Amino acid sequence: MRIAIDAMGGDHAPQAIVEGTLQAARAHADVTLVLVGDEEAIKRCMGSERPSNVEIVHTTEVIAADDEPVRSVRRKKDASMVVAARMVKEGQADGFVSAGNTGALMAAGLLVVGRIPSIERPALASIWPTFGGNAMLVLDVGANMDADPVHLFQYGLMANAFSKEVLGLPKPRIGLLNVGAEPGKGDKLRKEAFELLQNGPFHFVGNIEAREAMHDKCDVLVADGFTGNNMLKLIEGFGLGLFDKLKDVFLAGPLTKLAALILKPGLRQFKKTFDYSEYGGAPLLGIDGAVIKAHGSSNARAFEMAIEQARRFIAGRVLEQINQDVQKQ
């Protein structure tokens, strides 16, 4: 198994990317990790220790966070992200991981790697923690702003295969994000998607309201990209604001500081539950390769977990399973 790594993408590249790659390489000696990027910069971050299963492919260009996605992928042929995607397309790697520009990653997935032929639209999935302590896969969170009912149905198929093979769930519960829990709720898109999902080859649990989504009501939450992306940003913003407010409350005076000291172990565990670094990256499902988007601010641990997700994706033969499930429909 070979996984290409975009060493130049992300807020803390290449240092955090290289460190995370080295940690993953030590954990999985049977996986070859190929760091793609500026060779000198990579070697400076690596130091004298280089595991035998880590390789370097030198590139001369970088896609920046503010670059226009499609134009940069088409024009920057020697960018680390584009070269990593091309390695997957040409069979030199089984998948690739990047913490770089999200739009460019989706463009590279579509324009360079290509779609699975039977999938009409790819979906960007995100793994969210829930108050029940389990992880929930949400898709689409931004790959496509517009969707047809069949796209939402295919999201359910792809997420079902991914959840079984990567998240280890024998019978994932598939839910549809909607304005009400009762059948027949929602607009034309949601009503038609409900009918398709209800008759799908997976465990569909019906409509899920946004207020119930974080309470372990389903393992997979299906949404169109516009709705999913807005929900994702709302929860991220709320989470950041909540922890800031808690900090203000606990530092308000001597008694609250004492309370904070007593509650510190529990608060640390609570924060860890919602720490993105423990959940790896966001898979771009529907692309003909294991393409994983790591968080832009990934530290070494977060990037190591994103690589682990790519490894499980490939080892679990998720692409083959998606193809089989779609062809049966």
From TrEMBL:
It catalyses: a fatty acyl-[ACP] + phosphate = an acyl phosphate + holo-[ACP]. Pathway: Lipid metabolism; phospholipid metabolism. Its main location: cytoplasm. Keywords: Acyltransferase, Cytoplasm, Lipid biosynthesis, Lipid metabolism, Phospholipid biosynthesis, Phospholipid metabolism, Transferase. GO terms for molecular function: phosphate:acyl-[acyl carrier protein] acyltransferase activity. GO terms for biological process: fatty acid biosynthetic process; phospholipid biosynthetic process. InterPro entries: FA_synthesis, Phospholipid_synth_PlsX-like. Homodimer. Probably interacts with PlsY. Catalyzes the reversible formation of acyl-phosphate (acyl-PO(4)) from acyl-[acyl-carrier-protein] (acyl-ACP). This enzyme utilizes acyl-ACP as fatty acyl donor, but not acyl-CoA. This is Phosphate acyltransferase. The gene is plsX.
